[in-house]
Automatic annotation (TrEMBL):
Principal location class: membrane
UniProt keyword Cytoplasm, yes or no: no
GO cellular component, as recorded: plasma membrane
Organism: Rheinheimera riviphila
Membrane topology note: Multi-pass membrane protein
Protein family per UniProt: Belongs to the sodium:solute symporter (SSF) (TC 2.A.21) family.
Reactions listed under catalytic activity: L-proline(in) + Na(+)(in) = L-proline(out) + Na(+)(out)
Ranges annotated as spanning the membrane: 6-25, 45-74, 80-99, 120-144, 164-185, 192-210, 254-275, 296-322, 349-378, 399-418, 424-442, 454-472, 478-498, 544-567, 573-591
Gene3D superfamilies: Sodium/glucose cotransporter
Listed name of the protein: Sodium:solute symporter
Length: 596
């Protein structure tokens, strides 16, 4: 890519500034483990929310979103349900508050509030630590593959994709390891500002260079519609024939069926609560339960509009101006390279440096957030608890540095072995997280579910998700979800019913502290008998309504910027109206009723 001196200067200043900020803040991070991993639980909710949004604005995910927007058009707004994107709605409505009430440092430590102490609780914590480390390695490999593919096109030096990725990993690892949670959050605020400016600029460029008529001529009938039937019915023949093959390879010909599977998996997964990564860490770092809920709500509000302006902008530019080239390339075209190709062709000189810095920021945010969260599990729940309970803060932070570097090395090795961003993404969000769902759903909603049930449920789900790509490499992970869920359920229920219930005092304490709804009648009766003044403050009906409205609210935050960039004004005004109505409803039925 042809960059002028000012572009080089912006990229270099960004990298130096990020590294300096992370190292400068490291003095605050080294006070104790609570400061290093959770920022001392003193940071305001809006700062944590922007940081969380920045961590989710990842470069590999953005490359995938550009690809699906290019292929599926406005229908691509549904496809992030595979993650599922609406888990943030469940978090903001009730789960963030439930989780934050524990005052724990990690998800594994949180389990003590649910299962107490003893052999079963120790096994629970151990399996969560393993899950956290395995998922962190997967995220690192995911980021490594994405940043390498991207940097090889837009950075000016003649290096291989893997070498670019190694250099960027080294810079990011240094400031994360030194700065801890403070370093991650403060650098992510800078990164989010850069990403937002770059994303809006791309959307504006696309609106200036692509007309609705050009876009209609370059896409098949139904591409610009949000709605769908059982079959996808997008025929790219004569336009870009290889897109039909991609749709088939993605397994989305039966679009309605696949979306139902995404919804089924997504609801169960969302009710299970956040996986032990940076999302959970931001919740535990909030000052209070109500601030944790507001933080989760802010994530969707600030992230989707700028991100999807960029996604729609690059998709529109590539459709109109790269169509002949993609058609000529046939099956050999790598659709995951659409984003860097589009930057190379369409971003004007001068803006390129800012955009590249913004996209580097997107990668560094996700990578830094994942890398800061995972070592907490090993240090707090293994090393400090079993190996060196009397160790110093300095020693614990030094061990955290070592674990961080080790995770990067293993993640990079995995990234070198895998070819596709989509392969890694499907395994993480489809298989690995699928194996997580059963045990974590039951821990919130069933009083009889005990520590051994959690351990065997998590272990069976984790083993099933690890074996899936080895035994059935061609099976779509989304279609495998029911089997992964079944494996986790069998382990969970068998482990529970074959062992005694957890201690009654622990269950009563958990119920009083968290106040979950679900199958808790025997415990609730005992709590009320001991304290007749206790008020459960449970609103499952209201929560369910807020989730339904919140999911629609979140979907409009995706549809609105896509319609804006593609100048589909009827869809834009309809989405804006829905957004205003759902925002008003959530304010009076959710935000105004938050309590600590």
């Amino acid at each position: 890519m042809n960059l002028v001196w000012i572009d080089h200067a912006i990229i270099l200043l960004y990298l130096i500034g990020t590294l300096w900020l992370g190292l400068w803040i490291s003095r605050r991070a080294s006070k104790d483990l609570n400061s290093y991993f959770l920022g001392g639980k003193t940071m305001p909710w809006w700062m944590l929310g922007v940081s969380n949004a920045s961590g989710m604005f990842d470069i590999a995910g953005t490359m995938w979103l550009v690809t699906v927007c290019f292929v599926y058009g406005l229908k691509s707004a549904w496809l992030p349900w595979i993650w599922p994107i609406f888990n943030q709605v469940f978090l903001m409505v009730y789960l963030s508050a439930w989780l934050r009430r524990s005052n724990a440092m990690t998800g594994a430590e949180w389990l003590q509030t649910r299962f107490g102490h003893g052999r079963g609780a120790e096994l629970c914590q151990l399996v969560v630590v393993v899950f956290a480390l395995v998922s962190a390695i997967g995220f690192i490999a995911y980021g490594f593959k994405g940043i390498g593919k991207f940097a090889a096109i837009f950075l000016p030096w003649d290096l291989s994709p893997d070498m670019y990725a190694l250099i960027i990993f080294a810079v990011t690892t240094l400031y994360v390891v030194k700065g801890g949670m403070y370093g991650v959050v403060f650098t992510e605020l800078l990164q989010f500002l850069l990403m937002t400016i770059a994303a809006v600029a791309v959307g504006v460029i696309a609106m200036q260079q692509v007309s609705p008529e050009q876009l209609a001529a370059a896409t098949p009938e139904g591409w610009d519609s949000l709605w769908f039937g059982w079959n996808l019915d997008l025929n790219w023949s004569g336009l870009i024939d290889s897109v039909n093959d991609k749709i088939h390879n993605d397994g989305l010909d039966l679009f309605g069926l696949m979306l139902m599977m995404m919804l089924f998996k997504g609801v169960l997964f969302s009710m299970a609560g956040p996986v032990p990564n940076y999302d959970m860490q931001r919740i535990l770092a909030a000052k209070s339960p109500s601030e944790a809920a507001k933080m989760s709500g802010l994530v969707s509000l600030v992230m989707f509009i700028p991100r999807y302006m960029m996604v729609a902008g690059f998709a529109a530019l590539a459709l109109v101006y790269m169509q002949p080239e993609i058609q000529a390339a046939g099956a050999g075209f790598d659709f995951e390279q659409l984003l860097p190709y589009a930057i190379e062709r369409f971003v004007p000189v001068g803006l390129a440096g800012l955009l590249i810095a913004g996209l580097l920021a997107a990668f560094m945010s996700t990578f830094s957030a994942s890398l800061n969260a995972a070592p907490a599990y090993f240090v707090n729940d293994i090393y400090k608890k079993y190996l060196r309970p009397q160790g110093s803060t300095k020693e614990y932070i030094r061990i955290s540095h070592l674990v961080s570097v080790l995770l990067v090395v293993i993640g990079v090795a995995l990234g070198l072995l895998l070819e596709s961003i989509n392969d890694i993404m499907q395994w993480i969000f489809g298989a690995l997280f699928g194996g997580y769902a059963a045990a974590n759903l039951l821990k919130w909603h069933w009083w009889r579910f005990n520590a051994y049930g959690y351990f065997w449920g998590m272990l069976s789900g984790l083993i099933a998700s690890m074996l899936l790509p080895l035994l059935w490499p061609d099976l779509q992970p989304l279609l495998a979800f029911p089997w992964l869920l079944l494996a986790g359920l069998i382990g969970s229920v068998a482990g529970t019913l074959l062992t005694p219930p957890d201690d009654e005092a622990v269950l009563m304490s958990f119920y009083r502290q968290v106040r979950p709804w679900g199958f808790w009648a025997p415990v609730k009766a005992k709590v009320l008998a001991a304290d007749p003044t206790f008020f459960p403050d449970q609103t499952p009906g209201r929560d369910a309504v807020n989730i339904l409205v919140g999911t629609g609210w979140q979907l409009t935050l995706v549809v609105l910027p896509i319609c804006l960039v593609m100048q589909q004004w009827q869809g834009f005004w309809a989405a804006l109206l829905v957004l205003l109505v759902t925002s008003w409803f959530l304010k009076i039925n959710w935000l105004d009723k938050l309590k600590d």
